[in-house]
TrEMBL record:
Residues 49-273 form the ATPase BadF/BadG/BcrA/BcrD type domain. This is BadF/BadG/BcrA/BcrD ATPase family protein. It comes from Propionibacterium freudenreichii subsp. shermanii (strain ATCC 9614 / DSM 4902 / CIP 103027 / NCIMB 8099 / CIRM-BIA1). GO terms for molecular function: N-acetylglucosamine kinase activity. Its EC number is 2.7.1.59. Gene3D superfamilies: 3.30.420.40. The keyword Transferase applies.
């Protein structure tokens, strides 16, 4: 394995989400540059999108990049890092570390310690890590999962707005928010169905819910429902890896959904109701930090099994 700490080259960290992809360059652990690019579409092949994102990010680098450490939303467990390395031929990259963003979010939040981390941005996923095993909870996409995520919140906001419009639900300021975005509110569903970027667009309404949660009861209820779902995922993960029996498990929370203070406070309250001595960590690091820490994971860590790796020197020669 190429050691980024000893390399004279540069480490490229790439955090690919459904709304935005961020790249960061580090030399000897120090950040020397950052850039942002379009998010990935998880209903399309991911590796070609990642190769494009890496090549776009390399334009911002002023030195040779040896290692690319990548966390991505929607990645399957058997993703082939060597296939991505092949796609990066000619870039100078000699090693690729590839993982689902639940792994990089975990590492960014609490490092290589035992516990659970919930990442709630456009999507949502929880990763729990025990002494010998890991457990992923949710992160199953906007159609059948991602409970409590930005998309889930945005979808709920649209639903409540349309209920209020129809007279089926309580009045809410969300109706006016949604009405500003569409010429005809009753045709909004048609426009959204046809939008290639509908997932991130719908998730965008989570910000309005957060802004209105203190004054609008409908938004408060959506926020609290999301918090309950995210907390439930944490409990499930801790049980599966044998950490629920601890009095003081470590739990991290990352992602834009937690900028909603009603959601964030409710989430912590639900956790502490069952685990009063919980060690709650927020804001220690992000997905990019996790990409960097992925290169430093201890050999005996259960997290190693969640990192796909390919090195140029290990591939068969033609």
């Amino acid at each position: 394995m190429v050691d980024p700490g000893d390399s004279e080259g540069t480490l490229l960290c790439l955090d690919a989400g459904q709304t935005i992809t961020r790249t960061q360059f580090r030399r000897n652990g120090t950040v020397i540059g950052e850039s942002e690019h379009a998010g990935v579409l998880t209903d399309r092949p991911l590796l070609p999108q990642l190769a494009t994102a890496v090549r776009s990010g390399l334009h911002a680098a002023d030195s040779t990049v040896d290692v690319a450490a990548i966390g991505v939303s929607g990645l399957v467990d058997n993703a082939d890092a060597s296939e991505l390395l092949d796609m990066l031929a000619g870039t100078g990259i000699r090693e690729v570390l590839l993982a689902h963003d639940s792994t990089t979010s975990y590492l960014g939040a609490i490092g290589d310690e035992l516990g659970a981390v919930v990442a709630a941005g456009t999507g949502s996923v929880t990763l729990a890590v025990g002494a010998t095993r890991t457990a992923r909870v949710d992160g199953w996409g906007y159609l059948i999962g991602d409970a409590g995520s930005g998309f889930w919140i945005g979808r709920a906001a649209l639903d409540r707005a349309m209920q209020a419009h129809d007279g089926r639900g309580a009045p809410t300021a969300l109706t006016a928010v949604v009405r500003r975005d569409f010429d005809d509110l009753e045709e909004a569903y048609l426009e959204l169905q046809a939008d290639e970027l509908k997932v991130s667009r719908i998730a965008g309404y989570a910000q309005s819910v957060a802004e209105l949660a203190a004054t609008d009861m409908v938004c408060r209820r959506i926020s609290e429902e999301a918090a309950d779902l995210l907390a439930h995922a944490v409990f499930a993960g801790l049980r599966r890896v044998g950490q629920a029996e601890r009095e003081d498990p470590m739990v991290g929370a990352v992602g834009n959904a937690f900028r909603n203070t009603v959601l964030r406070d409710r989430f912590e309250q639900v956790l502490r109701d069952q685990l009063p001595k919980l060690r709650f960590v927020e804001g220690r690091g992000n997905g990019l930090d996790g990409c960097y820490r992925m290169t430093l994971v201890a050999p005996d860590s259960a997290l190693r099994q969640r990192i796909n790796r390919a090195t140029a020197s290990e591939r068969p020669q033609d």
